[in-house]
Amino acid sequence: MGKEETQSPLWEVFTQKRSGAPFEHAGSVHAPDKEMALQNARDVYTRRGEGTCIWVVSSKDIVSSSPEDMASFFEPANDKI
Question: Measured in Å, how far apart are the chain's first and last C-alpha atoms?
């Protein structure tokens, strides 16, 4: 069995430093479910009071543009107002 098969799913962690501030990516944790991911994120990324709120998002649910598509994806479209 490979390492990926024995590890829990990967979760991306976002923290908010103070109420009303933007959330920032803090890092990642492995956990079997969202509750454990939230607890792991709290233990790893806010143990010194660095945040007021935490988001955890399953890495498999994140959709991203590709750096190879940067020119065509981000160029202004002529049909935009």
Answer: 54
Q: How far apart, in whole angstroms, are the C-alpha atoms of residue 58 and residue 31?
A: 10
Residues 6+ apart with CB under 8 A from 42: 54
Domains of the chain: 3-74 (3.10.20.520)
How far apart are the C-alpha atoms of 16 and 65, rounded to whole Å? 24
Q: Is 73 helix (H, G, I), strand (E, B) or coil?
A: helix
Instruction: Report if pTM > 0.85.
Output: no
Which residue is it, tokens 């109420």?
19
Convert the pLDDT of each residue in 25-77 to its tens digit. 999 999 999 999 999 999 999 988 778 899 999 999 999 888 888 777 777 76
